Amino acid sequence: MVQDKETILPIQLSFMLYTTVMATGFLVLPALGSLYAPYDFWMSSILAMIPGVISIVLATSLHTRFPGLTIIESGQRIVGKVFGKLIGLLYFIYFLHFTGVISREYAEFVKGCFLFDTPMMFVSCSLLLLAACAVRGGVNVLAKSAVIFTVLFMMPLLFLLLLIPDLNWTNILPMLSQGMVPVMKATFVPQSWVSELFLITFLLPYVKDQKKAKQWGYAALGMIGISMLLIDLVVLLLLGPDTSNKTYPVLVAFRYMSVGGFFENLEALLLAMWVMGNLVKQSVVLYATVISFSQSFGISDFRSLVFPIAILAAVFGIWDLPNIAAIQSLIEKISVFEIPLFMIVIPLLLLLIAWLTGRRGTNQGGVNGR
C-alpha cells in the first residue's frame, strides 16, 4: 500500500505534467497544424494554452473543494456512489484506451523509423513493462524518474537552435493572409493535447506543498507553450508549407542538422528523447488508469492491478489501431473531442453540481492507501 509519508514536491509535479503533454505532441503537432494553416500554424501553440489554464483551474478547484480526493472519489461525493462509480468506470475505460494509444504511437515511430525488423508487440510491451514497474513503485518513483527523464528529454530540443543559420525567415509570410479561421482549426489538435494537464488531479493528493502546486502547474503550462512555439517556428522556417507532407517533420529537422561536418545524423538524439518522454507519459497515464479502476471498485491496494491492466492496454493498442493511418485518424477526428470531454467537460459539470448543491469534502486522504 502507498504509505502516508509518500509525497512529491510541486516542482516534481511540474516535470511530470510537462513531459506528459510534450512527449508525443512535439513529433506530430507541426504536421497536423500545417494542414489547416500552412504559414500560421505556429500561432496554434499560443491559443492552445487556454484549455490548459482551464484544465488546471478545474483540477485544483475540485481538489480545493474535496481535499485529498481525485476526481474519481470526488465524483462519488458529488453525484452519489452509483453514478460516481459509473463516471469512474468511464474514466478507467478511457484511460485504458489512452494508455494503449500511447504505446502504439511509441511503437509505430520506433519500428517505422529505426527498428524496422523488430516486432511491434515487443516494442510496445517493452515500454509498458518499464512503465508498469515505475507505477508499482509508487508516486515517489514516478516523480523522481520524471525529473531525470524530463531534463534529458528537453536537452535535444536545444539542438534545434543549431538550425538557425539554415532557417528561411520568409516562410512565416504571408501572416494571417486567410484570417484567424485556419489558425483556429489548427488549434483543435494541440488544445486537446494541452487539456491532458487535468491529469494533475491524480497527483495533487500527494503534493507536499498544496499552495505551490497550482503555481508549478502553470509553470509546466508555460514551458509547454514555449517548447511548442519553438518547435513549430523551427519546423516552419525550415520546411515551409511542405511541413504538412511530412509524417514526422521534427525527425526531418534532426536529420538536416550538420555542424562543421562533425555533428551529423542526430536523429539518434530524437529517438532517445522519444523513449524517455514516452516512458514518463506512459507511466503517468497508466497510473491514472490503475487508480481509476481501484477507486471505482474500492480496492485498497492498486499495485496488484498494475501488470494485468498494462497487458490489457497493450492488447488495446495493437487491436484497436491496426496501422498508422488509424492512429492519424484517431488524433485528427476523435481525440480532439474525446480528450476535452474527459479533461474539461465532465470535471466542469461535476464542479458546477458541487457548487450548486454546496457539497464539499469532509475528510482528508482519499487516495488509496493514504
> What's the alpha carbon Rg, rounded to whole Å?
20 Å
Q: How many individual β-strands?
A: 2
Please write the CATH class name. Mainly Alpha
Cα shape: globular
Any guess at the CATH architecture? Up-down Bundle
Strand order of the largest sheet: 1-2
Q: Low-confidence segments, ≥5 residues, pLDDT <50?
A: none
What does this structure look like?
It is a single chain. This protein has a single domain, classed as Up-down Bundle (Amino acid/polyamine transporter I). The chain is 69% helix and 1% strand. It has 13 helices and 2 strands; from the N terminus they run ααααααααααββααα. Strands 1-2 form a two-stranded antiparallel sheet. Helix 1 packs parallel to helix 9 and helix 5 packs across helix 6. The radius of gyration is 20 Å and the shape is globular. The N and C termini lie close together (8 Å).
How is the secondary structure organized here?
Elements: H1 10-34, H2 44-47, H3 49-65, H4 71-79, H5 81-113, H6 120-136, H7 139-158, H8 181-194, H9 210-239, H10 249-256, E1 258-259, E2 263-264, H11 267-296, H12 306-320, H13 324-357
Antiparallel strand pairs: 1-2
Helix pairs in contact: 1-7, 1-8, 1-9, 1-11, 3-9, 3-13, 4-5, 4-13, 5-6, 5-11, 5-12, 6-11, 6-12, 7-11, 8-13
Features:
mainly alpha; Amino acid/polyamine transporter I; globular
Summarize the structure.
This protein is an all-alpha fold and 370 residues long. The chain contains 13 helices and two strands. It has one domain: Amino acid/polyamine transporter I (Up-down Bundle).
